[in-house]
Structures are given as C-alpha cells and as structure tokens.
Amino acid sequence: MASSETTADKSDTRFFGQPWALVHIFGVEMWERFSFYGMQGILLIYLYFSVSEGGLGLSQAVAGGIVGAYGGSVYLSTILGAWIADRMLGSERVLFLSAIVIVAGHVALALLPGFLGVGVGLVLVALGSGGLKANATSVVGTLYSADDSRRDAGFSLFYLGINLGAFLGPILTGILQSSLGFHYGFGLAAIGMTLGLVQYSFGRRALPDEARRVPNPLPSSRYPLVAIIALAAIALIVVLVLVGVIKADNLSTIVIIATVVAAVAYFAVILSSRRIDGTERSRVWGFLPLFVTSVAFWSLYQQQFTVLTVYSDERLDRNIFGFEMPVSWVQSINPVFIIILSGVFAAIWTRLGTRQPSTPVKFALGAIIMGAAFLLFLPFAGGGANSTPLIAIVGILLVFTIAELLISPVGLSVTTKLAPKTFHTQMVALFFLSIALGTAISGWLVRFYDPTNEVPYFSILGGIAILVGLGLLLSVKPVLRLMKGVS
Q1: Residue 421: exposure state from Cβ atoms within 10 A (0-12, 13-18, ≥19)
Q2: Which CATH superfamily is domain 22-217+224-482 in?
Q3: How many CB atoms lie within 10 A of CB 382?
Q4: Is a pLDDT exceeding 90 seen at residue 276?
Q5: With 70 as the cut, is the pLDDT of residue 2 above it?
Q6: From 102, 266, 321, 322, which residue has the greatest number of CB atoms within 10 Å?
Q7: CA 176, 177, 183: angle at the middle one, nearest 5?
Q8: Please, which residues bridge with residue 18 across strands?
Q9: What element of type H or E holds 324?
Q10: How far apart are CA 479 and CA 414, in angstroms?
Q11: pLDDT at residue 200 above 90?
Q12: Contact by Cβ (8 Å): 36, 168
C-alpha cells in the first residue's frame, strides 16, 4: 500500500532533516551513478587504446566525439522519459522501468565484443539513464511544497547520493580494467546497477501518490500512433547509419543539432500551450537565460570526460609513491569534493534562508568560476609527458566543484519551481537538454584541443564562460521579474 506521506509534510525530517522517502530515490540514483561513471571512467580509453592494449584503436578525436555524443544522448533522452511520464505512466513507473533498461545496457557492454557491445550498450544506457534522470529529479520535487525552505538542501543531499556513486564507480572499475581488462570493469558497472534496481524495487511503494500521477494523460486512442512514430524513428536511424549519414566521426555534431532542435521545439510547445497561464508562461521565459548559462557551464565542465581524460593519460603525473594510478581515478576527484562540499553548501543555503543569493546570481557565479577554472590550466600549457603535477589537477577540480554546486543542484531545484503544472517533468527534461547540449559540445570541442598549443584553447573557452556569467549577472533584475516570485 502506498505511503500516506504528502508533498507538503514538513514534519517528516527522518532522513538528515529531509523526508524519509528521499532515501529511496537517493539510493537508486547513487547506484545508477556508480554504474554510469564507473563505465564512463574507462570508456574513452577503451575506444582509443590500441587493440593490443585491449581497446578498439580509434583516434582520440573520434573517441572523444563518441563519448560526448553518448553523454549528450543520455540527457537528450530525458525528453522521451519525461514525455512518457507526463502522458502515459507517471514519473515513478518510468524511473523503475528505466533502471531495468540500464542494467541491460551495462550487461551488453560487459558481455558483447567490440563495437557491437559499444553500440548496443551505449544506446540502452543512454535511453535508460535519460528516463531515470529526469524522473528521479521530478520525484524528489514531489516530496516538497513550493515554499518548503528545505527544498534546496534536499536537492543538495540528493546530489550527495549521486556523487557517492560517482566517486566509487571510476575507482573500482579502474582497478578491474587495469588488472583484469576492460570488460571486467564494464561487468562491475552492471553489478552496481543491478544492486540499485533491487534496492529501489523494495522501496518504491513508500513514495507519495503524487510521484505516480500522470499529469496530462494521453487518450488511449492515440497509443497506436505513438507506436507507429516510435518504430518509424528507429527505422530512420537505422537507415541513416546504413547509408553513412550517421558515422562515428560526426556523432557529436548530430547530437548537437538534434538537441538544439529539441530545445527550441520544447520551448515553443510549452510557451504556446493553452494549458498554462500568464504567470507560468513568464516563468518559462525567465528560465531561458538560465538555460543558456547552463549550456556554457556544461560545455566546459563535461570536458572532464573528454579533454581532461586525454590530458590525464598523456600529460598528468599520476605517480603516487611509486604507484601509477589508473586514468579513470582522476574522475573520482570531483565527487570527493562534492561529497565534502555539498553538505557545506546545503548548510549555507539553509542558514541563509530567504537571505541567500537568488538563483540567477548563483548561476552567474557558477559560469564565471567555471571559466576561471579553465584559465588555471594556462600555467601548465606547453609541458611534456608527466609535466602537470597531480595536486594541480586536484586544485583545478576543486574550482570545478564549487562552480558545479552553484548550478547543478540549484538548477534542478529551480526547474521544478518554475515548471508549469501541466509540463512538470518535461520542464525538468528541458534543464537536462541544456546539459545534453553542453555535453555534446564538450565532445565536439576535442578536435580543437592541441597539446602543443593549449593557450588559445583554455583561454578562449574560459573567457567565453566568464562573459556569459557576467551577462547574466547584469541581467538579474529583469530575469527575476520574469520568474514571478520564484527566486
């Protein structure tokens, strides 16, 4: 039987001051991130390591493009997961089904050989992770009323669960990859996600009924049309692959184009809908500059999995007292800082209460700090192999983390507050579309990274992010007016 907990129950503080139901979403998201980042920690080097090293032997530019396209596709597929939740099944049910698809994807990567495993595995993980991400966030939002001051702190705690998994995944898969081989690392990711699925299957009934509500049900007469469209889309993609339009070396560009089209279409559909009122429409307009700033931020931040992975493999001194740590371990540095600082940020926002900076100010500062982090690479530009000390990357990733905590959990929270009732989960998908676009751009940018001439790369990208942040900072008052009481 479903729990009687409601979205407005402020007396329930059993999970570190938050509603107890948060623990179930916290858990499945933690294991999903364990598997996601554990697999992604070794994915790029699997693609470009030589066959003799256990890899597939692609060029670094193509491998980086695939990783960026895959990462972008994860967030792009939040559209599908959000639409199914809002029109057919509700967020909680889509979350559960998505977890099953993710398990299948990781199993495919672990057991199927070569490019077949990569193709089948990445498609399934992208679809499943997209469905889980948008709906997990939406379900967290159902645990709080709009005026609950614990909301940002709750999302920060949720973000802690994400990063516990993100910390452990690359470390453990990296150990198995370096000692036993890539497929053992992928296998561990599959085991982790299976644990998450089992845990959630026992706890999902404790979630409030609101999490299972379908806000805008699709008439049953239109189900056949949906099935036809889905089959046609799959057929089109298969044909485009077979005739060579979609290729490994242009995947990131295709995902960028698809994401831009999807974002424009989504904004147009929501803004033109007769189901939203004037206040809701104004809030969606207020979300637009936050969307643009988020794209700029993620274009730099997600290079942890593209440019920074190559940098760590070739330029970073990874020797620790005679032990050379696996490349994937670098991706566990950021989650360590998140684990440490997410509680600090949550405490700061809780203590400040209504005196905390507004969301546009937090976003602006996040973009500026992210740009500054890229400028911190400049003192090490032009060095050779093993020329960048590990402590330098640790410091730079600390700055990455501070910027992230000003944008990612805050963005998840404000999106659920700005969302029109009819488009609740789909607005969360719009926020993830900004991450999709930034992630795909991060893969596309790999082709411009030249280790022999790094100054233009890091200085131009860092400067663009700083300018975007300054532009939003100067526009805070008009943006807040559009947000109509949401700050």
Answers
A1: exposed
A2: MFS general substrate transporter like domains (1.20.1250.20)
A3: 12
A4: no
A5: no
A6: 102
A7: 100
A8: 15
A9: strand 323-324
A10: 13
A11: no
A12: no
